[in-house]
Amino acid sequence: MLAGSMGLLPSASLGDGGPGLYEPIHGSAPDIAGQGVANPCGTIMSAAMLLRHSCGAPDAAAAIEAAVTGAIRSGARTRDIAGSGARDWLGTTAFTDVVLKNLRAA
Questions:
Q1: Annotated domain spans of the chain
Q2: Res 8 pLDDT > 50
Q3: I need a labelling partner for 56 at 20 to 30 A (CA). Which of 34, 63, 89, 93 fits?
Q4: C-alpha atoms less than 13 angstroms from C-alpha of 24 in its C-beta half-sphere
Q5: Are the C-beta atoms of residues 51 and 57 closer than 8 Å to each other?
Q6: In this structure, are residues 41 and 76 in contact, taking their beta carbons and an 8 Å threshold?
């Protein structure tokens, strides 16, 4: 992932024999709640980790990871990674829509 935003980082708490707990690495961000500006990458990539490590679906996980990577490579940016003063960033839903479009095209 790109450094610079906690919204980009997936995580998992895994133990022997358990299903695991998958979540993005960030807080609740009450300062941006309801504004549609949260970066969804960490959440989406955490779902990919769940598919790979707890559901035995590595191909589905790889497809999601590729969709997120493709979105970023195509220039899709959320406010936190677009840079201060940037005007061409996407909100949470619009960025997720780009990821879903990539996933459907795969």
A1: 37-106
A2: yes
A3: 93
A4: 18
A5: yes
A6: no
